[in-house]
Amino acid sequence: MPGGAAPSIGSRRLLESVLVANRGEIALRVIRGARELGIRTVAVFSEPDRGSPHVLHADEAYPIGPARAADSYLNVDRLLEVARRAGARAVHPGYGFLAERADFAAAVEEAGLVFVGPAAETIRAMGDKTEARNRMEAAGVPVVPGTSEPLGSAREARRAAEAVGFPVVLKAAAGGGGKGMRVVERPEDAARAFRAAMREAEAAFGDGRVYVERFLERPRHIEVQLFGDTRGNAVHLFERECSIQRRHQKLIEEAPSALLDEDERQSIGEAAVRAARAVDYVGAGTVEFLCQDGEFFFLEMNTRLQVEHPVTEMVTGVDLVEWQFRVAAGEALPMRQRDIPLVGHAIECRITSESPFDGFLPATGVVNELELPGGPGVRWDGGIARGTEVGLHYDPLLGKLIAHGADRRTAVRRMKGALEELTVGGVSTSAPLLSLIMEEADFRAGRISTRYLDEHPDLFRAEIPVATRRALVAAAALLEHAARPGRAPPRIRRAAAPLSRWARARTASEPPRPNGR
Fold first, then answer.
1. 63 backbone dihedrals φ, ψ, rounded to 5°
2. Is the preceding peptide bond at 167 cis, omega within 30 degrees of 0?
3. Which of 96, 214, 229, 383 has its CA 20 to 30 A from that of 28?
4. What is the pTM assigned to this prediction?
Protein backbone atom coordinates (compact mmCIF):
# COMPACT_ATOMS: atom_id res chain seq x y z
CA MET A 1 0.00 0.00 0.00
CA PRO A 2 1.46 3.39 -0.96
CA GLY A 3 2.63 5.50 1.92
CA GLY A 4 2.39 2.65 4.46
CA ALA A 5 -0.72 1.71 6.44
CA ALA A 6 -4.00 3.43 5.73
CA PRO A 7 -4.98 6.21 8.12
CA SER A 8 -7.69 5.42 10.64
CA ILE A 9 -10.74 6.42 8.65
CA GLY A 10 -13.75 5.54 10.72
CA SER A 11 -13.75 3.40 13.80
CA ARG A 12 -13.79 0.12 11.85
CA ARG A 13 -11.01 0.90 9.33
CA LEU A 14 -13.30 -0.35 6.56
CA LEU A 15 -11.81 1.70 3.79
CA GLU A 16 -8.32 0.30 3.45
CA SER A 17 -8.97 -0.40 -0.23
CA VAL A 18 -11.61 0.61 -2.76
CA LEU A 19 -12.73 -0.65 -6.14
CA VAL A 20 -13.60 2.25 -8.46
CA ALA A 21 -16.48 0.97 -10.58
CA ASN A 22 -16.16 3.52 -13.35
CA ARG A 23 -13.84 4.91 -16.02
CA GLY A 24 -12.46 8.17 -17.41
CA GLU A 25 -12.10 11.41 -15.53
CA ILE A 26 -14.35 10.50 -12.60
CA ALA A 27 -12.45 7.26 -11.96
CA LEU A 28 -9.20 9.22 -11.99
CA ARG A 29 -10.66 11.84 -9.64
CA VAL A 30 -11.75 9.16 -7.16
CA ILE A 31 -8.38 7.42 -7.38
CA ARG A 32 -6.58 10.68 -6.58
CA GLY A 33 -8.92 11.37 -3.68
CA ALA A 34 -8.38 7.89 -2.26
CA ARG A 35 -4.62 8.22 -2.62
CA GLU A 36 -4.71 11.39 -0.47
CA LEU A 37 -6.16 9.24 2.32
CA GLY A 38 -3.75 6.35 1.82
CA ILE A 39 -6.50 4.09 0.47
CA ARG A 40 -5.39 1.39 -1.99
CA THR A 41 -7.24 1.73 -5.30
CA VAL A 42 -8.46 -0.95 -7.69
CA ALA A 43 -9.42 0.09 -11.21
CA VAL A 44 -11.41 -1.82 -13.81
CA PHE A 45 -11.22 -1.40 -17.55
CA SER A 46 -12.87 -2.57 -20.74
CA GLU A 47 -10.71 -3.59 -23.67
CA PRO A 48 -10.62 -0.11 -25.33
CA ASP A 49 -9.67 1.47 -21.97
CA ARG A 50 -6.64 -0.74 -21.35
CA GLY A 51 -4.19 2.18 -21.53
CA SER A 52 -6.44 4.89 -20.05
CA PRO A 53 -5.06 7.24 -17.36
CA HIS A 54 -7.34 5.87 -14.64
CA VAL A 55 -5.87 2.40 -15.26
CA LEU A 56 -2.30 3.66 -15.10
CA HIS A 57 -2.80 5.65 -11.89
CA ALA A 58 -4.53 2.96 -9.82
CA ASP A 59 -2.57 0.61 -7.56
CA GLU A 60 -4.13 -2.36 -9.34
CA ALA A 61 -6.26 -2.74 -12.47
CA TYR A 62 -8.32 -5.61 -13.81
CA PRO A 63 -9.96 -6.23 -17.20
CA ILE A 64 -13.73 -6.69 -17.10
CA GLY A 65 -14.74 -7.31 -20.69
CA PRO A 66 -15.25 -5.87 -24.17
CA ALA A 67 -16.23 -2.32 -25.14
CA ARG A 68 -19.96 -2.78 -24.78
CA ALA A 69 -20.88 -1.33 -21.39
CA ALA A 70 -23.41 -4.08 -20.67
CA ASP A 71 -20.56 -6.59 -20.91
CA SER A 72 -18.07 -4.61 -18.84
CA TYR A 73 -18.83 -1.55 -16.70
CA LEU A 74 -22.46 -2.57 -16.15
CA ASN A 75 -21.68 -6.21 -15.36
CA VAL A 76 -22.36 -6.35 -11.62
CA ASP A 77 -21.24 -9.95 -11.14
CA ARG A 78 -17.92 -9.27 -12.83
CA LEU A 79 -17.30 -6.10 -10.81
CA LEU A 80 -17.95 -7.89 -7.53
CA GLU A 81 -15.71 -10.76 -8.60
CA VAL A 82 -12.87 -8.27 -9.20
CA ALA A 83 -13.51 -6.72 -5.79
CA ARG A 84 -13.22 -10.16 -4.20
CA ARG A 85 -10.05 -11.06 -6.09
CA ALA A 86 -8.39 -7.75 -5.30
CA GLY A 87 -9.38 -7.75 -1.64
CA ALA A 88 -11.24 -4.45 -1.93
CA ARG A 89 -13.24 -3.45 1.13
CA ALA A 90 -15.41 -0.80 -0.53
CA VAL A 91 -16.85 0.18 -3.92
CA HIS A 92 -17.08 3.75 -5.23
CA PRO A 93 -19.47 4.02 -8.20
CA GLY A 94 -18.44 7.48 -9.45
CA TYR A 95 -21.30 8.84 -11.56
CA GLY A 96 -23.11 7.38 -14.53
CA PHE A 97 -23.16 3.63 -15.20
CA LEU A 98 -24.24 1.99 -11.91
CA ALA A 99 -24.02 5.00 -9.60
CA GLU A 100 -27.78 5.38 -9.17
CA ARG A 101 -28.79 1.73 -9.47
CA ALA A 102 -30.36 0.61 -6.22
CA ASP A 103 -29.82 -3.04 -7.12
CA PHE A 104 -26.08 -2.43 -7.47
CA ALA A 105 -25.84 -0.72 -4.08
CA ALA A 106 -27.76 -3.63 -2.57
CA ALA A 107 -25.50 -6.20 -4.25
CA VAL A 108 -22.39 -4.43 -2.93
CA GLU A 109 -23.79 -4.45 0.60
CA GLU A 110 -24.87 -8.11 0.32
CA ALA A 111 -21.31 -8.98 -0.72
CA GLY A 112 -20.09 -7.57 2.60
CA LEU A 113 -18.56 -4.45 1.03
CA VAL A 114 -19.06 -0.77 1.79
CA PHE A 115 -20.97 1.16 -0.88
CA VAL A 116 -19.60 4.70 -1.03
CA GLY A 117 -22.97 6.36 -1.44
CA PRO A 118 -26.47 6.38 0.01
CA ALA A 119 -28.42 3.27 0.99
CA ALA A 120 -30.12 1.23 -1.72
CA GLU A 121 -33.53 2.17 -0.29
CA THR A 122 -32.74 5.88 -0.68
CA ILE A 123 -31.55 5.45 -4.26
CA ARG A 124 -34.70 3.48 -5.09
CA ALA A 125 -37.01 6.06 -3.54
CA MET A 126 -35.40 9.04 -5.24
CA GLY A 127 -35.10 7.20 -8.56
CA ASP A 128 -38.89 7.03 -8.79
CA LYS A 129 -39.82 10.60 -9.66
CA THR A 130 -43.42 10.39 -8.46
CA GLU A 131 -42.43 8.91 -5.10
CA ALA A 132 -39.76 11.60 -4.81
CA ARG A 133 -42.41 14.29 -5.44
CA ASN A 134 -44.62 12.83 -2.74
CA ARG A 135 -41.79 12.70 -0.21
CA MET A 136 -40.72 16.24 -0.97
CA GLU A 137 -44.25 17.58 -0.61
CA ALA A 138 -44.52 15.86 2.76
CA ALA A 139 -41.21 17.45 3.82
CA GLY A 140 -42.38 20.94 2.85
CA VAL A 141 -40.15 21.23 -0.22
CA PRO A 142 -41.89 23.12 -3.07
CA VAL A 143 -42.66 20.95 -6.11
CA VAL A 144 -43.80 21.90 -9.61
CA PRO A 145 -47.63 21.65 -9.86
CA GLY A 146 -48.56 18.32 -11.45
CA THR A 147 -49.61 14.74 -10.73
CA SER A 148 -48.23 12.70 -7.88
CA GLU A 149 -49.08 9.35 -9.46
CA PRO A 150 -48.27 7.92 -12.91
CA LEU A 151 -50.87 8.40 -15.63
CA GLY A 152 -52.92 5.36 -16.60
CA SER A 153 -54.02 6.29 -20.11
CA ALA A 154 -53.87 8.90 -22.85
CA ARG A 155 -57.31 10.17 -21.79
CA GLU A 156 -56.13 10.55 -18.21
CA ALA A 157 -53.02 12.37 -19.46
CA ARG A 158 -55.18 14.92 -21.27
CA ARG A 159 -57.45 15.47 -18.25
CA ALA A 160 -54.46 15.89 -15.95
CA ALA A 161 -52.81 18.32 -18.37
CA GLU A 162 -55.96 20.41 -18.58
CA ALA A 163 -56.16 20.52 -14.78
CA VAL A 164 -52.55 21.69 -14.47
CA GLY A 165 -52.87 24.14 -17.36
CA PHE A 166 -51.02 24.19 -20.67
CA PRO A 167 -48.18 24.08 -21.50
CA VAL A 168 -47.25 20.93 -19.57
CA VAL A 169 -44.43 18.42 -19.72
CA LEU A 170 -44.85 14.65 -19.62
CA LYS A 171 -41.95 13.00 -17.81
CA ALA A 172 -40.71 9.47 -17.18
CA ALA A 173 -41.29 8.37 -13.60
CA ALA A 174 -38.24 6.11 -13.59
CA GLY A 175 -35.50 8.30 -15.06
CA GLY A 176 -34.22 11.64 -16.24
CA GLY A 177 -31.72 13.21 -18.61
CA GLY A 178 -34.48 14.30 -21.00
CA LYS A 179 -35.48 10.76 -21.93
CA GLY A 180 -39.20 10.01 -21.83
CA MET A 181 -39.99 13.72 -21.81
CA ARG A 182 -42.47 15.56 -24.05
CA VAL A 183 -43.65 19.16 -23.90
CA VAL A 184 -47.38 19.54 -24.72
CA GLU A 185 -48.79 22.94 -25.61
CA ARG A 186 -52.31 21.99 -26.82
CA PRO A 187 -54.96 19.54 -25.55
CA GLU A 188 -55.18 17.77 -28.91
CA ASP A 189 -51.46 16.86 -28.71
CA ALA A 190 -51.63 15.24 -25.26
CA ALA A 191 -52.53 11.69 -26.31
CA ARG A 192 -49.84 11.42 -28.97
CA ALA A 193 -47.21 12.90 -26.65
CA PHE A 194 -48.24 10.52 -23.87
CA ARG A 195 -47.75 7.46 -26.07
CA ALA A 196 -44.40 8.74 -27.36
CA ALA A 197 -43.14 9.49 -23.84
CA MET A 198 -44.20 6.03 -22.65
CA ARG A 199 -42.38 4.30 -25.51
CA GLU A 200 -39.19 6.26 -24.91
CA ALA A 201 -39.31 5.73 -21.15
CA GLU A 202 -39.80 2.00 -21.62
CA ALA A 203 -36.87 1.82 -24.03
CA ALA A 204 -34.55 3.92 -21.82
CA PHE A 205 -35.45 2.66 -18.34
CA GLY A 206 -37.49 -0.51 -18.80
CA ASP A 207 -40.38 1.37 -17.16
CA GLY A 208 -42.99 3.20 -19.22
CA ARG A 209 -44.71 5.08 -16.40
CA VAL A 210 -45.24 8.79 -17.11
CA TYR A 211 -46.54 11.72 -15.05
CA VAL A 212 -47.33 15.36 -15.84
CA GLU A 213 -45.98 18.68 -14.54
CA ARG A 214 -46.53 22.31 -15.39
CA PHE A 215 -44.02 23.38 -18.02
CA LEU A 216 -41.83 26.30 -16.97
CA GLU A 217 -40.93 28.08 -20.19
CA ARG A 218 -37.78 30.00 -19.20
CA PRO A 219 -36.58 28.55 -15.90
CA ARG A 220 -33.12 28.54 -14.46
CA HIS A 221 -31.72 25.22 -13.36
CA ILE A 222 -30.19 25.54 -9.91
CA GLU A 223 -29.00 22.62 -7.82
CA VAL A 224 -27.81 22.42 -4.23
CA GLN A 225 -24.93 20.21 -3.09
CA LEU A 226 -25.87 18.35 0.06
CA PHE A 227 -24.15 15.91 2.38
CA GLY A 228 -25.45 13.63 5.11
CA ASP A 229 -23.81 11.20 7.52
CA THR A 230 -24.87 8.09 9.40
CA ARG A 231 -25.35 10.09 12.60
CA GLY A 232 -28.29 12.16 11.39
CA ASN A 233 -26.33 15.25 10.37
CA ALA A 234 -27.04 16.99 7.05
CA VAL A 235 -25.61 20.16 5.50
CA HIS A 236 -25.63 21.92 2.17
CA LEU A 237 -22.58 23.35 0.39
CA PHE A 238 -24.46 26.09 -1.46
CA GLU A 239 -25.81 26.04 -4.98
CA ARG A 240 -24.67 25.64 -8.57
CA GLU A 241 -26.18 27.26 -11.66
CA CYS A 242 -26.63 24.68 -14.44
CA SER A 243 -28.94 26.52 -16.84
CA ILE A 244 -26.89 26.37 -20.04
CA GLN A 245 -27.86 23.02 -21.52
CA ARG A 246 -28.53 21.34 -24.82
CA ARG A 247 -31.19 18.65 -24.95
CA HIS A 248 -31.30 18.67 -21.14
CA GLN A 249 -27.57 17.93 -20.91
CA LYS A 250 -25.50 20.52 -19.03
CA LEU A 251 -22.64 22.35 -20.74
CA ILE A 252 -21.59 25.00 -18.23
CA GLU A 253 -21.98 25.12 -14.46
CA GLU A 254 -21.25 27.87 -11.95
CA ALA A 255 -21.07 28.27 -8.20
CA PRO A 256 -22.70 30.23 -6.78
CA SER A 257 -25.65 31.25 -8.95
CA ALA A 258 -25.70 34.88 -10.06
CA LEU A 259 -29.50 34.79 -9.70
CA LEU A 260 -29.86 34.37 -5.95
CA ASP A 261 -29.47 36.91 -3.19
CA GLU A 262 -28.43 35.86 0.31
CA ASP A 263 -31.98 35.28 1.56
CA GLU A 264 -32.85 33.16 -1.48
CA ARG A 265 -29.58 31.27 -1.11
CA GLN A 266 -30.45 30.43 2.48
CA SER A 267 -34.01 29.38 1.59
CA ILE A 268 -33.04 27.03 -1.23
CA GLY A 269 -30.23 25.54 0.86
CA GLU A 270 -32.57 24.87 3.78
CA ALA A 271 -35.06 23.23 1.39
CA ALA A 272 -32.32 20.89 0.15
CA VAL A 273 -31.44 19.91 3.71
CA ARG A 274 -35.11 19.15 4.42
CA ALA A 275 -35.09 16.94 1.33
CA ALA A 276 -32.02 15.10 2.64
CA ARG A 277 -33.55 14.54 6.06
CA ALA A 278 -36.78 13.27 4.49
CA VAL A 279 -34.94 10.24 3.09
CA ASP A 280 -32.24 9.86 5.80
CA TYR A 281 -29.64 10.75 3.19
CA VAL A 282 -26.05 9.54 3.66
CA GLY A 283 -23.15 10.72 1.49
CA ALA A 284 -22.94 13.22 -1.35
CA GLY A 285 -26.10 14.14 -3.22
CA THR A 286 -27.70 16.95 -5.13
CA VAL A 287 -31.18 18.41 -5.05
CA GLU A 288 -32.10 20.05 -8.35
CA PHE A 289 -34.56 22.93 -8.56
CA LEU A 290 -36.19 24.92 -11.35
CA CYS A 291 -36.37 28.64 -10.57
CA GLN A 292 -38.66 31.11 -12.31
CA ASP A 293 -40.34 34.41 -11.37
CA GLY A 294 -38.96 34.39 -7.86
CA GLU A 295 -40.09 30.84 -7.06
CA PHE A 296 -38.16 27.58 -6.89
CA PHE A 297 -39.50 24.06 -7.32
CA PHE A 298 -38.04 20.62 -6.62
CA LEU A 299 -37.04 18.82 -9.82
CA GLU A 300 -35.21 15.70 -8.66
CA MET A 301 -32.54 14.37 -6.34
CA ASN A 302 -29.31 12.90 -7.72
CA THR A 303 -28.11 10.25 -5.30
CA ARG A 304 -24.44 10.50 -6.22
CA LEU A 305 -21.54 12.86 -6.80
CA GLN A 306 -22.21 15.19 -9.74
CA VAL A 307 -20.06 15.91 -12.80
CA GLU A 308 -19.94 19.55 -11.75
CA HIS A 309 -18.76 18.96 -8.16
CA PRO A 310 -15.41 20.75 -8.77
CA VAL A 311 -17.02 24.21 -8.79
CA THR A 312 -18.37 23.56 -5.30
CA GLU A 313 -14.94 22.39 -4.19
CA MET A 314 -13.37 25.57 -5.58
CA VAL A 315 -15.68 27.97 -3.71
CA THR A 316 -15.83 26.06 -0.41
CA GLY A 317 -12.35 24.52 -0.23
CA VAL A 318 -13.97 21.16 0.61
CA ASP A 319 -12.75 17.90 -0.94
CA LEU A 320 -16.08 16.20 -1.61
CA VAL A 321 -14.51 12.85 -2.48
CA GLU A 322 -12.67 12.81 0.85
CA TRP A 323 -15.96 13.55 2.61
CA GLN A 324 -17.54 10.63 0.73
CA PHE A 325 -14.93 8.22 2.01
CA ARG A 326 -15.07 9.49 5.58
CA VAL A 327 -18.86 9.37 5.77
CA ALA A 328 -18.94 5.89 4.19
CA ALA A 329 -16.55 4.74 6.95
CA GLY A 330 -18.97 5.96 9.61
CA GLU A 331 -17.39 9.28 10.52
CA ALA A 332 -19.41 12.40 11.26
CA LEU A 333 -19.45 15.23 8.75
CA PRO A 334 -16.18 17.18 9.03
CA MET A 335 -17.90 20.59 9.21
CA ARG A 336 -21.05 22.16 10.54
CA GLN A 337 -23.28 24.31 8.35
CA ARG A 338 -22.16 27.63 9.79
CA ASP A 339 -18.49 26.73 9.25
CA ILE A 340 -18.71 26.05 5.50
CA PRO A 341 -17.27 29.05 3.61
CA LEU A 342 -18.34 30.46 0.26
CA VAL A 343 -15.43 32.28 -1.37
CA GLY A 344 -15.40 33.76 -4.86
CA HIS A 345 -16.94 32.31 -8.00
CA ALA A 346 -16.16 29.21 -10.07
CA ILE A 347 -17.17 28.09 -13.57
CA GLU A 348 -16.90 24.64 -15.14
CA CYS A 349 -17.00 23.87 -18.85
CA ARG A 350 -17.59 20.30 -19.99
CA ILE A 351 -15.17 19.34 -22.74
CA THR A 352 -16.93 16.68 -24.80
CA SER A 353 -16.02 14.81 -27.97
CA GLU A 354 -18.72 16.42 -30.08
CA SER A 355 -18.99 18.80 -33.04
CA PRO A 356 -21.10 21.68 -31.66
CA PHE A 357 -21.28 23.49 -35.02
CA ASP A 358 -22.60 20.36 -36.69
CA GLY A 359 -25.55 19.56 -34.47
CA PHE A 360 -23.39 18.18 -31.65
CA LEU A 361 -22.64 15.08 -33.67
CA PRO A 362 -20.36 12.70 -31.75
CA ALA A 363 -16.69 12.90 -32.70
CA THR A 364 -14.15 10.10 -32.70
CA GLY A 365 -10.42 9.83 -33.21
CA VAL A 366 -7.12 9.52 -31.39
CA VAL A 367 -5.88 12.34 -29.15
CA ASN A 368 -2.62 13.17 -30.91
CA GLU A 369 -1.96 16.40 -29.02
CA LEU A 370 -2.94 17.55 -25.55
CA GLU A 371 -1.92 20.90 -24.09
CA LEU A 372 -3.56 21.86 -20.80
CA PRO A 373 -3.97 25.43 -19.57
CA GLY A 374 -2.50 26.71 -16.35
CA GLY A 375 -2.43 29.90 -14.34
CA PRO A 376 -4.13 31.13 -11.17
CA GLY A 377 -7.44 29.49 -10.32
CA VAL A 378 -7.46 27.06 -13.28
CA ARG A 379 -8.09 23.33 -12.81
CA TRP A 380 -8.38 20.44 -15.25
CA ASP A 381 -10.19 17.22 -14.34
CA GLY A 382 -9.62 14.97 -17.34
CA GLY A 383 -9.52 11.33 -18.27
CA ILE A 384 -7.51 11.50 -21.48
CA ALA A 385 -3.85 11.59 -22.49
CA ARG A 386 -1.94 11.65 -25.75
CA GLY A 387 -2.73 8.47 -27.59
CA THR A 388 -6.19 8.03 -26.02
CA GLU A 389 -8.62 6.58 -28.53
CA VAL A 390 -12.02 8.27 -28.38
CA GLY A 391 -14.82 6.07 -29.66
CA LEU A 392 -18.59 5.88 -29.50
CA HIS A 393 -18.88 3.30 -26.74
CA TYR A 394 -19.26 5.67 -23.78
CA ASP A 395 -20.29 9.16 -22.69
CA PRO A 396 -18.50 11.85 -24.75
CA LEU A 397 -17.13 13.67 -21.67
CA LEU A 398 -13.35 13.97 -22.04
CA GLY A 399 -12.74 16.26 -19.11
CA LYS A 400 -13.78 19.39 -17.28
CA LEU A 401 -12.12 22.77 -17.27
CA ILE A 402 -12.69 24.81 -14.12
CA ALA A 403 -11.79 28.44 -13.39
CA HIS A 404 -12.08 30.25 -10.05
CA GLY A 405 -11.81 33.93 -9.27
CA ALA A 406 -12.67 36.48 -6.62
CA ASP A 407 -15.88 37.28 -8.52
CA ARG A 408 -17.84 36.07 -11.55
CA ARG A 409 -16.20 38.52 -13.92
CA THR A 410 -12.74 37.25 -13.00
CA ALA A 411 -13.82 33.62 -13.28
CA VAL A 412 -15.28 34.23 -16.76
CA ARG A 413 -12.09 35.98 -17.91
CA ARG A 414 -9.92 33.15 -16.63
CA MET A 415 -12.16 30.55 -18.24
CA LYS A 416 -11.98 32.35 -21.58
CA GLY A 417 -8.19 32.34 -21.43
CA ALA A 418 -8.06 28.71 -20.34
CA LEU A 419 -10.31 27.61 -23.21
CA GLU A 420 -8.04 29.37 -25.70
CA GLU A 421 -5.00 27.63 -24.22
CA LEU A 422 -6.59 24.17 -24.21
CA THR A 423 -5.59 22.02 -27.17
CA VAL A 424 -7.07 18.60 -27.83
CA GLY A 425 -5.74 17.45 -31.19
CA GLY A 426 -7.26 14.69 -33.29
CA VAL A 427 -10.82 14.95 -31.95
CA SER A 428 -13.44 17.68 -32.34
CA THR A 429 -14.59 19.05 -28.98
CA SER A 430 -17.10 21.45 -27.48
CA ALA A 431 -14.35 23.91 -26.49
CA PRO A 432 -14.80 26.38 -29.43
CA LEU A 433 -18.50 26.87 -28.64
CA LEU A 434 -17.78 27.27 -24.93
CA SER A 435 -15.16 29.90 -25.74
CA LEU A 436 -17.73 31.87 -27.74
CA ILE A 437 -20.23 31.70 -24.89
CA MET A 438 -17.66 33.24 -22.54
CA GLU A 439 -17.68 36.33 -24.80
CA GLU A 440 -21.45 36.59 -25.31
CA ALA A 441 -23.11 39.64 -23.72
CA ASP A 442 -26.10 37.91 -22.09
CA PHE A 443 -23.91 35.25 -20.56
CA ARG A 444 -21.50 37.83 -19.21
CA ALA A 445 -24.42 39.72 -17.68
CA GLY A 446 -25.85 36.54 -16.13
CA ARG A 447 -28.99 36.70 -18.29
CA ILE A 448 -29.36 32.97 -18.87
CA SER A 449 -31.99 30.24 -18.72
CA THR A 450 -32.42 26.66 -19.88
CA ARG A 451 -33.36 28.14 -23.29
CA TYR A 452 -30.10 30.05 -23.63
CA LEU A 453 -28.76 28.11 -26.65
CA ASP A 454 -32.14 28.22 -28.42
CA GLU A 455 -32.24 31.98 -27.96
CA HIS A 456 -28.68 32.53 -29.21
CA PRO A 457 -28.49 30.76 -32.59
CA ASP A 458 -25.77 33.17 -33.75
CA LEU A 459 -23.33 31.26 -31.55
CA PHE A 460 -23.54 28.43 -34.05
CA ARG A 461 -22.91 30.72 -37.02
CA ALA A 462 -19.96 32.52 -35.51
CA GLU A 463 -16.51 32.94 -37.02
CA ILE A 464 -13.86 30.36 -36.32
CA PRO A 465 -12.64 30.92 -32.74
CA VAL A 466 -9.17 32.33 -32.12
CA ALA A 467 -7.69 29.05 -30.86
CA THR A 468 -8.97 27.20 -33.92
CA ARG A 469 -7.62 29.86 -36.27
CA ARG A 470 -4.21 29.56 -34.65
CA ALA A 471 -4.27 25.79 -35.08
CA LEU A 472 -5.26 26.11 -38.73
CA VAL A 473 -2.49 28.63 -39.39
CA ALA A 474 0.06 26.35 -37.72
CA ALA A 475 -1.17 23.36 -39.73
CA ALA A 476 -1.04 25.34 -42.97
CA ALA A 477 2.49 26.51 -42.26
CA LEU A 478 3.58 22.96 -41.51
CA LEU A 479 2.06 21.66 -44.72
CA GLU A 480 3.61 24.55 -46.66
CA HIS A 481 7.02 23.52 -45.38
CA ALA A 482 6.37 19.85 -46.14
CA ALA A 483 5.21 20.64 -49.68
CA ARG A 484 8.56 22.09 -50.77
CA PRO A 485 10.45 19.98 -53.30
CA GLY A 486 12.36 17.11 -51.75
CA ARG A 487 10.81 17.52 -48.30
CA ALA A 488 7.78 15.24 -48.59
CA PRO A 489 6.41 12.49 -50.82
CA PRO A 490 4.11 13.54 -53.69
CA ARG A 491 0.83 12.69 -51.95
CA ILE A 492 1.64 15.04 -49.04
CA ARG A 493 2.67 17.81 -51.45
CA ARG A 494 -0.63 17.42 -53.33
CA ALA A 495 -2.63 17.56 -50.08
CA ALA A 496 -0.71 20.64 -48.96
CA ALA A 497 -1.06 22.60 -52.19
CA PRO A 498 -4.44 24.32 -51.50
CA LEU A 499 -3.41 25.28 -47.99
CA SER A 500 -0.04 26.52 -49.22
CA ARG A 501 -1.64 29.34 -51.19
CA TRP A 502 -3.70 30.36 -48.15
CA ALA A 503 -0.66 30.28 -45.88
CA ARG A 504 1.39 32.40 -48.32
CA ALA A 505 -1.38 34.98 -48.56
CA ARG A 506 -1.63 35.19 -44.77
CA THR A 507 2.13 35.43 -44.32
CA ALA A 508 2.37 38.21 -46.89
CA SER A 509 -0.22 40.27 -45.00
CA GLU A 510 1.65 40.12 -41.71
CA PRO A 511 4.30 42.68 -40.69
CA PRO A 512 7.92 41.47 -40.81
CA ARG A 513 9.34 40.09 -37.59
CA PRO A 514 12.80 40.75 -36.10
CA ASN A 515 15.59 38.70 -37.64
CA GLY A 516 13.24 37.65 -40.41
CA ARG A 517 11.34 35.25 -38.12
1. -70, 145
2. yes
3. 229
4. 0.85
